[in-house]
Design brief:
Elements: H1 2-32, H2 39-57, H3 61-84, H4 92-114, H5 131-137, H6 143-165, H7 167-177, H8 179-184, H9 189-215, H10 224-235, H11 240-273, H12 286-297
Helix pairs in contact: 1-6, 1-7, 1-9, 1-10, 1-11, 2-3, 2-4, 2-9, 3-9, 6-7, 6-9, 7-9, 10-11, 10-12
Length: about 300
Amino acid sequence: MNFFFEVLIGGLLAGVMYSLVALGFVLIYKASGVFNFAQGAMVFLAALTFVGLQEKFGLPLWGAFPLTLGVMVLLGIGIERVVLRPLVNQPQITLFMATIGLAFFLEGVAQIVWGTDVRRLDLGLQDEPIESIMTNFNLLVSKFDLAAAFVAGVLVAVLAVFFNKTRIGRALRAVADDHQAALAVGIPLKQIWAIVWSVAGFVALVAGLLWGARNGVQFALTFVALKALPVLILGGFESVLGAIVGGLIVGASEKLAEVYLPALMSEFLLKHYDISINLAGIEGWFAYMLALVFLLVRPEGLFGERHIDRV
């Protein structure tokens, strides 16, 4: 039973980090209706810039962070002005294709400036069991996973409050509901979009640091954003709370499936159909299969708005 709880807790902690990546998509989609395919490239660029500044200038953690944050904020503002603003009122597919091109551009620029080598990122968080939990509950819970989940959880909570309680947050929601109506009541649409992309850059930086510290700073960080897609499908593309819940569901179910499902399915198939099958690597596709099943049941997500078209 202890092993089950270890797997479940590890999955939930990983799910919070998935939620952090998904949050970058939610922020931009809520304010502009754009699905930002370049979010993974922004995560990669942020982590690579952070490590590159440390290596080139010998900066400590507290020195490299604000400089990288400044780069990501300027990048967000630049994307809004150069890419998004000229495409206002264009079809959604046009905006989506623009973000695909932007993703390749950012990936290329990041590697041209900082190189393609895999870098180690040290945040001072050790990936080792917490002794008190291991002693009192006989559970192996990683210090890094718990600290990373705490940071991600705090950021998600702060952004949720920002969206729901602040004046800018209410303006963001108004823009998301109706661009033209928001302009009619005096909400500065261009400034709002610039703020959203800047915040998305900050979220990408935090996600890049946490995932880079876990997996190393490498091109594979761009694929972390793809794991956020099942989170968005489950939670809904427009909900901060949905990003949290979807991340927890995906993280927990993925880890449990990785540990228990191969043995159970292999035993079942061998017993009833005399078929031997290798289900290794199930963690790579289980979340997408879960999302596919969910699309058939509730395509708008747990916290998404139902769209009813009257004919």
